[in-house]
Amino acid sequence: MRRLFGAPLAALLLAAPGLAPLGAQQLGAATKSAPPAGVQPGQGAANPKGHYAELDKLPDWGGVWFMTFQGRVPGAAPEPGPKLKGEYLKKHVALAAASKANNGVIKRERSYCSPPGMPGIMRLAQYPYEFIFAPGRVTINQEAWMQTRTIWTDGRKHQDDPDPTYMGDSIGHWEGDTLVVDTIGIDPALDIATGSGHSDKFHLVERIHLDPADPDMLVNEMTMDDPEALAEPYHTTARYRRDRYGALLEFECSQNDRNPVDANGNTEFH
Fold first, then answer.
1. The whole model's pTM is what?
2. What is the pLDDT of residues 19-45, one digit of tens each?
3. Measured between alpha carbons, how far is 92 from 100 in angstroms, rounded to an integer?
4. In order of start, what are the domains of the chain with their CATH numbers?
5. Residue 47 half-sphere exposure, CB side, CA atoms within 13 Å?
6. What is the SS3 assignment for 202?
7. Which of 5, 91, 187, 233 would bridge with 225, disulfide CB 3.0–4.6 Å?
8. Burial, 174: exposed, middle or buried (Cβ in 10 Å; 0-12, 13-18, 19+)?
9. Digit-coded pLDDT (tens) for 242-255
10. 75 versus 99: which is more confidently predicted?
11. What is the pLDDT of residues 52-75, one digit of tens each?
């Protein structure tokens, strides 16, 4: 993650007399990153040439996908939610109580226009997904908030101490036609259940594959584990229906902190 610390903008653009402006010194200066752990120089996602033919061996996930069902078997009873514990359970319960007391309006610490990130990004019902295969990586584009998630499949290891981010650090590999994804480093402010957050030990494993009985249904079997926030690992399954010729649309989020209530006390969402 690149950070810009508190120097004034003028200080970044101007230098002492007789020197080129600092901004001119920095513009166009590319970093020289070393290959990630587990990837040899000249290999991996950064060197795709000569590896595109390998993509033909992968399953067909073309088109866009809408999440249509959350659960192991369509038509069955809903899956139980995660078994939270400790402070994370208290935060979840407190937010639910505050919402009920405020006519369903949830007051969040984060902006309503902040992206949901992981794991919520993989469980958005109304907005489609797009899976793009390239040598050494799988990219997931999500229409909501125009989020992009990268899953590295070039053999690299997890970062030793990844900065917490909305998407986390995801590495994957193929087991036949199943993409197995391991993710750590997700921002602890993001939720397992509404308002809960999680610890920096949160760990997610996904197994994504086509339904053997339906080639237009994609199945994502997720296992979430967090020894500080969960009493036991949480297993849940998301299913996505293919729209072969669909496309993602541009997404815009407009902040609205005021949700008016009508004369009957019902919240009016706009």
1. 0.81
2. 555 555 566 677 888 999 999 999 999
3. 13
4. 56-243 (2.40.128.20)
5. 8
6. coil
7. 233
8. middle
9. 999 999 999 988 76
10. 99
11. 999 999 999 999 999 997 666 667
- Contact residues for 49 (Cβ-Cβ < 8 A; gap 6+): none
Q: Are 81 and 75 in contact (CB under 8 A)?
A: no
pLDDT at 4: 38
The whole-angstrom separation of Cα 206 and Cα 116 is 18
Helix (H, G, I), strand (E, B) or coil at 53: helix
Handedness of CA 225, 227, 228, 229 (dihedral sign): positive
Which amino acid does the sequence have at 61?
W
Other beta carbons less than 10 A from residue 127's beta carbon: 18
Residue 85 exposure: Cα atoms within 13 Å on the Cβ side: 10
Between CA 84 and CA 228 the distance in angstroms is: 9
Q: Can you read off the two tokens belonging to residue 227?
A: 């020894």
Q: Which tokens hold the place of 32?
A: 């020289």
Amino acid at 159: Q
